[in-house]
Amino acid sequence: MTDTDRHTQMANAIRFLSMDAVQKANSGHPGLPMGAADIATVLFSQFMKFDPTEPSWPDRDRFVLSAGHGSMLLYSLMYLLGVEDMTLDDIKAFRQMGSKTAGHPEFGHAGGIETTTGPLGQGLANAVGMALAERKLAADFGAELVDHYTYVLASDGDLMEGISHEAISIAGHLKLSKLIVLFDDNEISIDGPTSLSESGDMLERFEAANWDTVRIDGHSAADIATAIERARQSDKPSLIACKTKIGYGAPTKEGTSKSLGAPLGDEEIAGTREALGWPHAPFEVPVDILDAWRIVGVRAVHERTEWTKRLADADVQVRAEFERRMRGDLPAGLEASIGDYIKKLAEDAPKVATRKASEMALEAIVPHLPEAVSGSADLTGSNNTRTSAMTPITADDYSGNFVHWGIREHGMAAAMNGMALHGGLIPMSGTFLVFSDYSRPAIRLAALMEQRVIHVLTHDSIGLGEDGPTHQPVEHLAALRAIPNLNVFRPADVIETAECWQLALEASGRPSVLALTRQGLPCMRADDIGKNRSARGAYELAPAGDEAQVSLFASGSEVEIAMEARKALMDEGIAARVVSVPSFELFGEQDEDYQLTTLGKAPVNIAIEAAIRMGWDRFIGSNGIFIGMSSFGASGPYKEVYEHFGITPQAAVAAAKAALSNDS
Question: To bridge 468 with a disulfide, which of 174, 424, 450, 635 should be the other Cys (CB 3.0-4.6 Å)?
């Protein structure tokens, strides 16, 4: 068998496993795997540094299938290469309940799935973060331990999505030369030809963003190999536009949208078998072709073994630090350092905005946390995410620990996901809470993938004042709290802010949001600091003394309002208590006894938050009193804005007294 014939048959194995699996499931997208099989075959057989026996080894090349709808391409590759947890039975179970082979690739389901893709553009932006992480870790540990490429297979849809513009701009600016995007340029979308909605030149667009570009025949193994080799020598990120035919080989559906999002049908598959000279039964791969693929997998074992030797020969401290960071373990002394810092805060009791409290916490934490990489979407001075010791990561020096993301919230959030997925770094970056709308899809995926990514979202309410309702978030806390497996922290003071930072860092299997104020807040807790009370999600900050008549629940800046209302009620002989609620999610994870004790039995329950009511009924019940927002905000000095919307201690006191009067 000639090399050309071997390549063709290896690519056909991908094509037919993919179309057979889609047909069996009666659901899926066969066109992309059929069209891109030649690209994937050349990449893995000639270039990819990937050991199927250890698919998670740190210095592997990353392959991101950004076009997640073509998931059978990835699953077929992993089976053919010999990844242990991707069997032929898994291929046959495509899109079935409980299967590893989900409709779109899901991180953690099987080896070789580097990220969860499907929402178009996300994988491309994840890959930017992975490529940035590679450069940063190479600067930290040297090329002997970190020296690999990040490859992306992207579709027309990936490059239409707005996030792709943000992602390629970041990559080009930072000259992430080890990022190579293979564009499956088939000019087909679900509606039909891409000419229905697109007339731009992708190559010119990427060139303008400081990328190298080339257009090739995506079915020519020689052209693909030449282009990848050229890209590997570039000092810029590279786009290889591979002109392909979607549904390659299908007698009536090749090159049409009919092969994109639905099974081909038995008759069309039979015709494809005849056209491509593949007489084998469904899911059958000839022994010689399967062996050819398995030999490809074995080739990479040597590279991984050589790397393992280099790691073993490294300085003991360097090796220990590298392994710790890749495991995701926090430094041994970090918890004690945070504890000492909180003790000092209790002594000083500073009155600061929680965004400033966050900066203070980072000043204390970052020197003990070398894996921290912070950043901001062009709001550094407002988000307070850059400490005095941080230096920027640039195209000339990747050793820094701060990224100027520019005004690219979505690209930033998705790249942070890629950094976390790569391993060895803890990404944290900031913008305004209201702009979480821009980054929400990536935050959701971080939660789905269980990645430790930390979002510092400042200017968290109408308390930002004069910028007005366009910048004042009212529904955003509820929207973020609705995302499963996302911790949303809204600390009330400098101590809770430090506690929430500790919790966010310790939450290795979930992302976190810190919603922080613009306005200064007094220190609420100068005692009882020996334990992290925010870890409970909600706790009694101020007791009633006697049996409570009123329970006041609040988060963030409104805890101060609740405390003032409590004092006024107590002065009038009305027993009132205050419960601080920094995290709905963590409170929901406490045992029932703790929850019931914290909620209490007061006849009147009031929640105070400068946001919408959604979510608060779990604390106050459907008949409870909510003091907050039911509309958009308004422009003005923040104290006047609070007064205008009735979010004041006086309003809470009046509501409590009225409710008690009605009960009597």
Answer: 635
C-beta neighbour count of 294 within 10 angstroms: 14
Structure tokens at 329: 């373990």
pLDDT higher than 70, residue 319? yes
Distance CA 326, CA 425 (A): 8
User: What SS3 class is residue 554?
Assistant: strand
Render pLDDT for 217-260 as a digit per residue (tens, 0 to 9).
999 999 999 999 999 999 999 999 999 999 999 999 999 999 99
3-state helix, strand, coil in the chain (%, to 5): 50, 15, 40
- DSSP state at residue 214: E
Structure tokens at 435: 């702009």
CA 460 to chain centre: 21
Instruction: Please report, to the nearest 10 degrees, the dihedral formed by the alpha carbons of residues 204, 171, 410, 432 taken in order.
Output: -120
For 136, 263, 298, 513, the CA distances from 559, given in Å and listed in that order, are 40, 56, 60, 19
Query: pLDDT digit string (tens) for 337-396?
Result: 999 999 999 999 999 999 999 999 999 999 999 999 999 999 999 999 999 999 999 999
Beta carbons of 371 and 425 less than 8 angstroms apart: yes
Q: What is the CA radius of gyration of the chain?
A: 28
Pull the structure tokens for residue 386.
Answer: 């850059």
How does DSSP assign 484-520, residue by residue?
Answer: TT-EEE--SSHHHHHHHHHHHHH-TTS-EEEE--SSE
Q: What is the pLDDT of residue 664?
A: 65
DSSP assignment string, 289-338: HHHHHHHHHHHHHHHHHHHHHHHHHS-HHHHHHHHHHHHTPPPTTHHHHH
Specify the pairing of strand 426-432 against strand 454-458: parallel
Beta bridge partners of 192: 189
DSSP 360-386: HHHHHHGGG-TTEEEEESS-HHHHT--
Catalytic residues: 409
Phi and psi for 63 in degrees, rounded to 5?
Answer: -120, 120
- For the record, the structure tokens of 174 come out as 């930072």
Which residues have a Cβ under 8 Å from the Cβ of 318 and sit 6 or more positions away? Answer: 141
Q: How many CA atoms lie within 13 A of 302 on its CB side?
A: 4
Q: pTM of the prediction?
A: 0.98
CA 466 to chain centroid, in Å, comes to: 32
Angle, helices 3-25/71-81, rounded to nearest 10 degrees: 120
d(CA 454, CA 439) in angstroms, rounded, equals 12
Cα-to-chain-centroid distance, residue 21: 29
Q: What are the φ and ψ backbone dihedral angles of 417, each rounded to 5 degrees?
A: -60, -45
User: Of 555, 523, 510, 559, whose CA–CA distance to 537 is shortest?
Assistant: 555
Which amino acid is located at 255 in the chain? G
Q: Do 611 and 478 meet the contact criterion of CB atoms below 8 Å apart?
A: yes
